[in-house]
Amino acid sequence: MSVYTVVSDEAFKAWVEQYHLGELVELRGIAAGITNTNYFVTTTHGRYVLTLFEDLQLEELPYYLKLMSHLARHGVACPAPVADRSDRLVSLLAGKPACLVTCLDGSDVTHPDAAQCRSVGEMLASLHVAGDTYPARMDNPRGPVWWNRVSATLFGYLGEAEADSLRHELHFQNSQRFLHLPHGVIHADLFRDNVLLKGEAIAGFIDFYYACNDILLYDVAIAVNDWARKDDGTLDDALATAFLAGYQAVRPLNNDEKAAWPAMLRAGALRFWVSRLQDFHEPTAGAMTFTKDPGVFRKLAEDHRQRSNFWL
Fold first, then answer.
1. pTM of the predicted model, to two decimals?
2. Cα dihedral 292, 298, 299, 300 in deg (nearest 10)
3. Torsion on CA atoms 213, 155, 275, 308, rounded to nearest 10
4. Which of 54, 81, 275, 282 has the fewest CB atoms within 10 Å of its CB?
């Protein structure tokens, strides 16, 4: 989450008249994250999150917003999109598609413990199971085609060692074939700052705007790469084991998934290595933005090449 598009109180008040939400008390920008513009909204009826979509178009958004409604109906903790007086979930504000969702009562954690990792793993598996009955489809816009295309534009910024390492990882991933693995709805960005917790309980998964249809195991790898990561960039065996135990308590991995797991951990690291390199070297201008270190995921990808313990 970030603020790229500035929304004045006056502009928001005019827009929010389409809703039954009372009077505006506070509109406050959210600086964390890197993709869309986000504000906390407090009205006399409650608290909400306003999102303005910097890249997604109006016609793309029903997939994400209806997905959140579907998941919530099936017991997955996530925000509920708010409909306006015309029953629309999204409309234009400041020239950008915008929506409101409920603001959940919880907070993200910087240093999760094993019990919290297990809870997140369980809820992610529940999301994958519930997504099986979601009828809409969205192919992953940031899969192998994307990371190969973007990487080609980034090599000129990189030192020789990093460029060689990135080429090595791309070559490895391009040699893999995962089409036989279970597919379905994935969150695709389930980092610690996209989960709200109350103790060990999940208050909600948030920021579904990278959600798509892809390999379920890829989603698990993305999450483990963040939730089990220590401050020194290495992965904590106990946290990774707890996360996978929680996940498999709801949806056990099959033998093909277990065999593909080491390569999928590397794929999850590569995806965010490339996206963070792009954000770092080709940033989008914004009023309140937060660029994250691409070196974190370079280290993870390189560490995974040498890893012998994969917790399964």
1. 0.92
2. 90
3. 80
4. 282
Q: How many helices (H) and strands (E) does the chain have?
A: 9, 9
Structure tokens at 216: 């379920």
Beta bridge partners of 214: 184
Question: How does strand 201-205 pair with strand 195-198?
Answer: antiparallel
Task: Please count the other Cβ atoms lying within 10 Å of the Cβ belonging to residue 40.
Answer: 15
What are the chain's domains? Answer: 9-102 (3.30.200.20), 114-306 (3.90.1200.10)
Burial 79-118 (b: 16+ CB within 10 A, else e): bbbbbbeeeebbeebeebbbbbbbbbebeebeebebebbb
User: Tens digit of pLDDT for each residue in 30-63?
Assistant: 876 567 899 999 999 999 999 999 988 999 999 9
Q: Please write the tens of the pLDDT for every residue from 107-146.
A: 999 999 999 999 999 999 999 999 999 999 999 999 999 9
Which positions ≥6 away from 17 have C-beta within 8 Å? Answer: none
Q: Which long-range contacts (CB under 8 A, 24 or more apart) does 45-49 make?
A: 45/20, 45/21, 46/21, 46/102, 46/103, 47/102, 47/103, 48/21, 48/82, 48/100, 48/101, 48/102, 48/103, 49/79, 49/100, 49/101, 49/102, 49/103, 49/206
Question: Which residue, among 190, 204, 151, 207, has the nearest Cα to 35 in the 3D structure?
Answer: 207
Paired tokens of 170: 């791309």
Cα separation, 26 vs 292, whole angstroms = 28
Cα(140)–Cα(188) distance, integer angstroms: 9
